[in-house]
Amino acid sequence: MKVTTVGYWGAYPNANEATSCYLVQDGSVNVLLDCGSGALAKLQNYISLESLDAVFISHTHTDHMADLFSLEYAMLIQTQLGNRKRPLDVFIYEEDLSKLPFEFPAIVHVHPIKLKEEITVGSLTLSFAENLHEIPCVAMKVINAEGKVLVYSADTGMTEEIKNFGKSADVFIVECSFFEQQKGLVKGHLSTIEVAEIVNFSKPKKVVLTHFPHYGDREQLLEEVKKYTSEEIYLASNDFTVTL
Ligand SMILES: [Zn+2]
Ligand SMILES: [Zn+2]
């Protein structure tokens, strides 16, 4: 299994970059975890859009789903051109899916994510845990047939649940929205010192920091987390890929 950090900004993307979007590939299976603004353009550096099998959306903040509706048009056009022969499955953690502006129900099949239910896409099985955030939001765990485990925090404040959910992960992608000095500034996000507390508890093999702020130095985020933990930690970046 391989994961690529297609987009890693919080809120809005920097020039030629994208907000939250992670491409998970396992054999011929291609799945997206979140699909933020700028993601669709960048994703085409890695796969053709018609080869996408499913998309999972952690919550309905636009930095996690803005490009979903452009993706629906891409699927429509690729279907009309004969390049795609099946609908795209989209799974979203949102109670009222009818309020979302999808237009082509034959092209995109929209399903709810339910906390206690696993979802299987080809060789991948996904499960979910509830986060602490402004609106309902889930963390996601992806396991392949060989038992490799990827965990993605999505957006969350500090909870016991996220600490436990990250346990035994081969790769743990964790949001890191704030510097140490800003701890507690916003309830539904993590600062560097909290990220360190989480990974010291869950002990994943590798940690990838993501969901960056638009100020300060990203290297400082990394240094602050490293100050409190000896786990193996990377910053999400352009073309960053990790194999599990
Ligand atoms: Zn976000
Ligand atoms: Zn959010």
Explain what the structure shows.
The chain is of the alpha/beta class and 244 residues long. The chain has one domain (2-243): Ribonuclease Z/Hydroxyacylglutathione hydrolase-like (Metallo-beta-lactamase, Chain A, 4-Layer Sandwich). It contains six helices and 14 strands. The protein has helices at residues 39-43, 62-65, 68-80, 160-165, 192-202, 218-228, and strands spanning 2-7, 21-26, 29-33, 54-57, 88-92, 108-112, 119-121, 124-130, 138-143, 149-152, 171-175, 206-210, 233-235, 241-243. A seven-stranded mixed beta sheet has the order 6-5-4-3-2-1-14. It has a seven-stranded mixed beta sheet with strand order 7-8-9-10-11-12-13. It is globular and about 55 Å long. It starts with a strand and ends with a strand. The mean pLDDT is 97. The structure holds zinc ion (2 copies). One zinc ion is lined by residues 10, 20, 61, 63-64, 155, 211.
Q: How many strand segments?
A: 14
The hetero molecules present are: zinc ion
- Structural class, judged by helices and strands? alpha/beta
Q: How do the strands of the widest beta sheet line up side by side? A: 6-5-4-3-2-1-14
- Ranges with pLDDT <50 over ≥5 residues? none
Q: Find the CATH topology.
A: Metallo-beta-lactamase, Chain A
What is the average of the pLDDT values?
Answer: 97
Number of domains: 1
